[in-house]
């Protein structure tokens, strides 16, 4: 990854007209980092058409091929409408939809088969952190998802306790975790996510082994996005 990557996960926020207005205010012409916007599935075709200079991703995909799976969206469908990325295994889906590492692994395979870059989320709960088992937990997740040690994947490290809380691990903690992961998985591209905003993005960008950021709340403000991307 030559330019640092910023992935904005809009979750189930903002209406379509607000999404269009927001992206019209992003300084797309002068981006210093690669930007991927992940809106709701149903906005993707409209936004892909309206903002050709931007890359779009989905927030999830099915673990199945096309078929009788009511309410699901296949990776092949995402590819056809112009999605380049898909977030897989976000902790909100793991918690609210019961997704486990094996399911995340199956989704990863479907994304790759459809030529979409998966952004695979891993991260520990506060309980795991307090037990001092963060690294062990992250390595178990990578193992169970089926991340290969000699392939290039995009992994987003998002401590669950940092998401939407305004609290983050220190830059040194993230750096130490990334160095350990890179030691075992040298080809991974590592993003950090969890309460990232204009006030702390540059500190995280300062980590030499960090390839980018995954932002939630800050991605819903054009002003904040422009600051993070500048
Ligand atoms: P946050 O969300 O930036 O609002 O903490 C991050 C995420 O859920 O990916």
TrEMBL record:
It is an enzyme of class 5 (isomerase). Pathway: Carbohydrate biosynthesis; gluconeogenesis; Carbohydrate degradation; glycolysis; D-glyceraldehyde 3-phosphate from glycerone phosphate: step 1/1; Carbohydrate metabolism; erythritol degradation. Keywords: Cytoplasm, Gluconeogenesis, Glycolysis, Isomerase. It holds the Pfam family TIM. GO terms for biological process: gluconeogenesis; glyceraldehyde-3-phosphate biosynthetic process; glycerol catabolic process; glycolytic process. Belongs to the triosephosphate isomerase family. This is Triosephosphate isomerase. It comes from Midichloria mitochondrii (strain IricVA). The lineage of its organism: Bacteria, Pseudomonadati, Pseudomonadota, Alphaproteobacteria, Rickettsiales.
């Amino acid at each position: 990854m030559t330019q640092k990557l910023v992935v904005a996960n809009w979750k189930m926020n903002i209406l379509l007209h607000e999404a269009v207005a927001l992206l019209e205010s992003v300084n797309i012409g002068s981006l210093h980092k690669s930007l991927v916007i992940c809106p709701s599935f149903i906005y993707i075709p409209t936004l892909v058409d309206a903002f050709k200079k931007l890359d779009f991703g989905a927030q999830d995909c099915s673990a199945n091929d096309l078929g009788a799976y009511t309410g699901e969206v296949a990776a092949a469908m995402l590819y056809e409408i112009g999605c380049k990325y898909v977030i897989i295994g976000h902790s909100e889906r793991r918690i609210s939809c019961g997704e486990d590492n094996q399911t995340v692994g199956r989704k990863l395979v479907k994304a790759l088969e459809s030529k979409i870059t998966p952004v695979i989320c891993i991260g520990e709960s506060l309980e795991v952190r307090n037990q001092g088992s963060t690294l062990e937990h992250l390595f178990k997740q990578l193992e169970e998802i089926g991340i290969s040690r000699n392939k290039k994947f995009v992994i987003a490290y998002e401590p669950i306790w940092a998401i939407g809380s305004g609290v983050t691990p220190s830059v040194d903690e993230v750096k130490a975790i990334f160095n350990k992961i890179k030691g075992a998985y040298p080809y991974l591209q590592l993003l950090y996510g969890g309460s990232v905003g204009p006030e702390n993005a540059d500190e995280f960008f300062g980590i030499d082994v960090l390839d980018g950021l995954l932002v939630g709340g800050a991605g819903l403000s054009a002003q904040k996005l422009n600051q993070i991307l500048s």
